[in-house]
């Protein structure tokens, strides 16, 4: 385990369903019932309402909405940037996890805290934070406000913890013996990493990448002050949905929302499939 | 020789990671603090004596506390169900519970408006005629906040529950303890730390929710405007000092929450 605030519960979670447990008693059944009613009222029914509202305009209406020039541009920018950010996170997140687990140095605890800050920081504050270093008053002299780089940077900031926090515990539990064995049999550092370490880390990396992608695709708060929300240039999908809501057009808002939900779902499933394939190859 | 190159590689990796985190997180966060105090304590003083801002801060705290209470009770209850009991649909529920983490806050707001909106929502008009306004009022802000922070307690408590096992609970029951006694005397002390981490993380998330709250709150000055909405409004109205000062307060709480969790986690966990 790690000192992560975002301690992931991936492997225990998978065990949970396999282990079964007690059959429901009257009291626990009632408790579960109450919890399910609450969960339905809060999460399931509202999300279903989004899907139903999007479907109300029929396929033609839905297609017109999402292929509208401005909307399509926001979707391209959002999904494209989210994919790019996820790729960067796969490399940097794994690297950070590696250094935090395998290396010892003064100030490591501080780095641990820094990883979790983007998760706890309100997104609007995250935007302001990035603006103060990379905006018009930047002490570095770079001003990326209102550009597509700002969208990339904001996504990178808010998704920082996900891959680090899913990979870290798996890496910590990895036995060094197999690495040593590989090395003693003449495998190079790179071969050891690729053949021994990477396969064990892949499920964790995929899980973190899925979270990171889904988070980026839906990001809103950190962009408001940073990206300028220029139509066709830096406007992301969430901003587009909000302006539809504010223009009292819930049907188009719901249509774009469904696309976002579907894209997130597709990427989560795809990463799961990839992870399984890599494990099977061993 | 091999040792030397390993050492060099470590140094490089360590440096890359430290530099990345410095430019992405540490320096920007530090600058917000510095900008907040650019004119001494003036900015902070201005916002803390502005009744609209203090109202927003109070509202934010009240909403966050209510949301954390709801999520703690719900989270602990559902975690026990998932770990200790068996019922149809458990795997599906397990997957669905993580969903709020991957839904855009704007979509969360939209979903709640579509169901609880006063004019066209599925349930909204009926609730409103019963005298309960949800959207553009405080209950909507609470719902949005509960939604976005929902999985956090569960994600912390479930692994702990699995690790402690149920032997002690069975022993207590066989000695005649009822369900409430077993929970209070055995289960709760065992999962205490998991619950505390979950609560602290939920608190940080709840105090800082922005997008979902923006959609459902209506952002009415002195009524439904929360602290994060104040940051946006001040910044867009060219009151950068006020925006930085409010952002500084929010960042302070967030960073404090992260440090508390990181310091509390037991050493052997590391």
UniProtKB/TrEMBL annotation, chain A:
Its main location: membrane. This is Sulfate transport system permease protein CysT. It is found in: Membrane. The keyword Membrane applies. Residues 75-271 form the ABC transmembrane type-1 domain. Gene3D superfamilies: MetI-like (1.10.3720.10). Signal peptide: none annotated. The complex is composed of two ATP-binding proteins (CysA), two transmembrane proteins (CysT and CysW) and a solute-binding protein (CysP). It comes from Micromonospora qiuiae. Residues 1-11 have a biased composition (Low complexity).
TrEMBL record, chain B:
It is found in: Membrane. Residues 57-265 form the ABC transmembrane type-1 domain. It comes from the Bacteria. Keywords: Membrane, Sulfate transport, Transmembrane, Transmembrane helix, Transport. The chain crosses the membrane at residues 12-33, 59-83, 95-118, 130-154, 190-208, 243-264. It is a multi-pass membrane protein. The complex is composed of two ATP-binding proteins (CysA), two transmembrane proteins (CysT and CysW) and a solute-binding protein (CysP). Part of the ABC transporter complex CysAWTP (TC 3.A.1.6.1) involved in sulfate/thiosulfate import. Probably responsible for the translocation of the substrate across the membrane. This is Sulfate ABC transporter permease subunit CysW.
């Amino acid at each position: 385990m790690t000192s992560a605030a975002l301690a992931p519960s991936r492997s225990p979670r998978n065990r949970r369903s396999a282990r079964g447990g007690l059959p429901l008693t009257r009291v626990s059944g009632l408790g579960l019932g109450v919890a399910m009613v609450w969960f339905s009222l809060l999460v399931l029914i509202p999300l279903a309402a989004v899907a139903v509202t999007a479907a109300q305009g029929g396929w033609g209406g839905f297609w017109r909405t999402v292929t509208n020039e401005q909307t399509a541009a926001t979707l391209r920018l959002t999904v494209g940037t989210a994919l790019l950010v996820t790729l960067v996170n796969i490399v940097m997140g794994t690297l950070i996890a590696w250094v935090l687990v395998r290396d010892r140095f003064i100030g490591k605890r501080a780095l641990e805290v820094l990883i979790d800050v983007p998760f706890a920081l309100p997104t609007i504050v995250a935007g302001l934070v990035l603006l103060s270093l990379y905006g018009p008053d930047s002490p570095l002299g770079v001003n990326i406000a209102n550009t597509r780089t700002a969208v990339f940077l904001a996504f990178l900031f808010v998704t920082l913890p996900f891959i680090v926090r899913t990979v870290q515990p798996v890496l910590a539990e990895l036995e060094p013996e197999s690495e040593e064995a590989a090395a003693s049999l003449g495998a190079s550092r790179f071969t050891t990493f690729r053949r021994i370490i990477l396969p064990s880390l892949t499920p964790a990396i995929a899980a973190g990448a899925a979270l990171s992608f889904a988070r980026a695709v839906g990001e809103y708060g950190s962009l408001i002050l940073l990206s300028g929300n220029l139509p066709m240039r830096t406007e992301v999908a969430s901003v587009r949905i909000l302006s539809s809501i504010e223009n009292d057009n819930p049907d188009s808002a719901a249509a774009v929302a469904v696309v976002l939900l579907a894209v997130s779902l597709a990427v989560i499933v795809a990463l799961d499939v990839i992870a399984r394939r890599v494990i099977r190859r061993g | 020789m091999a040792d030397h190159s390993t050492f060099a590689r470590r140094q490089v990796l360590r440096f890359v990671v430290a530099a990345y985190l410095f430019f992405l997180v540490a320096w920007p966060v530090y600058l917000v603090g510095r900008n907040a105090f650019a004119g001494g304590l003036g900015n902070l003083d201005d916002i803390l004596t502005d009744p609209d801002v203090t109202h927003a801060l109070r509202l934010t705290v009240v909403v966050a506390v209510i949301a954390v209470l709801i999520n703690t009770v719900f989270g602990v209850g559902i975690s026990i169900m998932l770990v200790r009991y068996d019922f149809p649909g458990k795997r599906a529920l397990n997957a669905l519970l993580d969903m709020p983490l991957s839904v855009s806050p704007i979509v969360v707001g939209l979903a709640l408006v579509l169901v609880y909106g006063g004019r066209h929502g599925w349930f909204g008009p009926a609730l409103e005629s019963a005298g309960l306004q949800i959207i553009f009022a405080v209950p909507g802000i609470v719902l949005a906040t509960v939604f976005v922070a929902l999985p956090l307690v569960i994600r912390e408590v479930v692994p702990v529950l699995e690790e402690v096992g149920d032997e002690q609970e069975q022993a207590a029951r066989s000695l005649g303890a009822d369900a409430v006694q077993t929970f209070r005397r055995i289960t709760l002390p065992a999962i205490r730390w998991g619950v505390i981490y979950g609560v602290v993380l939920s608190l940080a998330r709840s105090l800082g929710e922005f997008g979902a709250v923006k959609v459902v709150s209506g952002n009415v000055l002195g009524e439904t405007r929360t602290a994060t909405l104040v940051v946006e409004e001040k910044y867009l109205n060219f009151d950068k000092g006020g925006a930085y000062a409010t952002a500084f307060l929010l960042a302070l709480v967030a960073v404090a929450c992260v440090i508390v969790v990181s310091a509390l986690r037991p050493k052997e966990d590391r």
